[in-house]
Amino acid sequence: MNDISRTAEREERGRDLSSRVFPLRVRGLAEALRTALEQERALRRPFLWLVVASGGGVVLYFSAEREPSLALCLCALAAFAVLAALTRRHARAHALFLTLAFIALGFASGAWRTARVASPIVPRVGIGELTGFVEEVDLRRAGARFILRVASAEGFPDDIVPSRVRLTTRGEPNFSAGDFIAFKARLMPPARAALPGGYDFARDAFFARIGAVGNALGRIETMSPPSSNPKRSVAGPSAVNMQRYQTSRS
Fold first, then answer.
1. Which residues pair with 128 in a beta bridge?
2. Residue 110 backbone phi and psi in degrees, to 5
3. Which residues is 181 bridged to in the sheet?
4. What three-state secondary structure class fits 14?
5. Is this prediction's pTM over 0.70?
6. 86, 107, 114, 163, 218 from 155: Cα distances, Å
């Protein structure tokens, strides 16, 4: 009985001691945080943390389970910005709403970027006819890989016309960056991550406006571009890739 009572007494003393020490630790942490904030304010460095807040908004955007509404994101950004402007005479409230405004800015920037680059994606494997401008050519030991800005696409599932496609050809290409070509191709959707947390090519392809990948079938014909598809839009990037192509061949 004495041993049991002594054990209970020790446990009671331990709980009493922890109940006293924990508030002291919390007060010490709060005091240290207050001192750090005052030092940041004295050195005029709080605005640097707004960049961190904006980055946090971007992280929140990518962690969202589904695509948020761009209109709601912009409304939230405008609301927090107005509240930050109205509370300039109240330091704590102003700091709070300014931080929330920059978090909303990072979140809205992600939603805006996604809406800006959104383009059709081929839903499944299909074979059809493609025409378009060659943007990039990457020579390999056997064949080449190139990116095509699509002008027309026929015969693919659901009549999808992707903006750009990444293709491979087995033989040495008879075209270069900037050429307008026509050929038959086999297209499929960009591959997603094979394992959770692995490399997600589909996400990178989405932001590059690449709506399909695949390979060229048969002969690739170089032809004059139609008048409705001006070559001016790819002149700059094609000139750079043309120089790279010629350098790799020399």
1. 185
2. -65, -45
3. 132, 222
4. helix
5. no
6. 57, 38, 28, 16, 16
